[in-house]
Design a protein that fits this description.
Helices cover 8% and strands 32% of the residues. It is mostly beta strands.
Amino acid sequence: MSNLPNCPKCNSEYTYEDGSVFVCPECAHEWTLESETENSEEKRIVKDSNGNVLNDGDSVTVIKDLKVKGSSSVVKVGTKVKTIRLVDGDHDIDCKIDGFGAMQLKSEFVKKL
């Protein structure tokens, strides 16, 4: 087997080398080893509604009633969420909320405790 790195975008193991560039056939992402190390050093900063920097493991409070997609229930204002995890994407907080289970939230609708 070859020792090619997984795709940094979709984590696919089916990457191949095209000259000095690595290519992912699943998401069509192209990168070099130099750009991969630059991206790992460059960390995205996520801020809450008040501008405080959020980190993995922080506790936050919901500042607005949030409708749960695919359900008639609502996450109420003041709901406390413990041990968040920051992820890439539109909804940048991954968490578990008591009574709802696993959920993704946008950082603009929470404030740090």
